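Supplementary notes for students who missed Thursday's class. We covered one full example, reproduced here. Read the sequence, then the structure, then the short commentary at the end.
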Amino acid sequence: MLKHFRQEVLFVLMSFLFLLSSCTEPDLIGLDLQPLSQQPGLKVDTLTLETFTVPEDSLIVWSPLKNLIELPTLFIGSYDDPYLGKTQAGFVSQIRLGNTITSSTFAGVTTPDSVVLSFLYKGIEGDSTVNHHISVYELDEVLLADSTYYSSRTYSRTGFLGHVDLIPEIRDSVLVGGTNAAPQLRIPLDTALGGRFMREYISNPGIFASNTAFIDFFNGVLLVDSADGVGSIVSLPSTSGVHRLTLYFSGTKSYEFLIDVNAVRLSYFTHQYLPSVYDNIPDNQLVVASMAGLKDSLVIKKSDFSLR
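Structure (token representation):
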């Protein structure tokens, strides 16, 4: 039994040594089958690329399919690039009912103390130290959740609701009701808007019985902005507990209208490119601009391949 085991071990060792000796020059295997002068090869003679900078077509910013993949980030501000030109960003949003409104909600009050539109900050690109001039208007068309909206679309607006000049403080907390809250954009609106809601509830409470009825009555808000100097673009998350329109009344009371995941909300962009943009771009360089701005096309002008 021991002898048989030794014979097997010897056989395995000899086989292993044979394999090692046969693999000492793997790169030479088969090279002697054809003369060197006749061996095939691939040679690339030329490959010329041409680049073209062109305006991006309008991008989808809201659609049922898109929202299954990602929720829309909101953008507001302006950026004046000395090389490309000016880009402006704003957004529109529905305002939805919060808690159920009853006769005791406003208790007959028809004039609020203040009305504030608020959004949580997400980030900022550009010069974060410049003033932004943000205006809010009432949207004059109904946004439809099952429709598709593009980034270049314009929206009808009606009455002016409010304005604020500020430097976005995206890292510093803000005082809300005597308590430090997360960094947020807070825009004071005309109290006439809140009074309109309160009086409308008294005369027509059915408008506040469902979001469908309320959105038909008040379509939403449209925000526009222009920043000083080169400017900057502020981004806001798709939803947050801060996104809302709040009516403050009777000293200590408030009611919150929501901008939640069910609200149609989307950004729009405008670009004012300098006439010389395309002429000033050097050959073989790529220039892109975000927010449905500029894109590049690559074209293979000429390519020659030869076999030998």
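Commentary. Confidence is low (pLDDT under 50) at residues 1-13, 16-20. DSSP finds six helices and 18 strands in the chain. If anything here is unclear, bring it to office hours.
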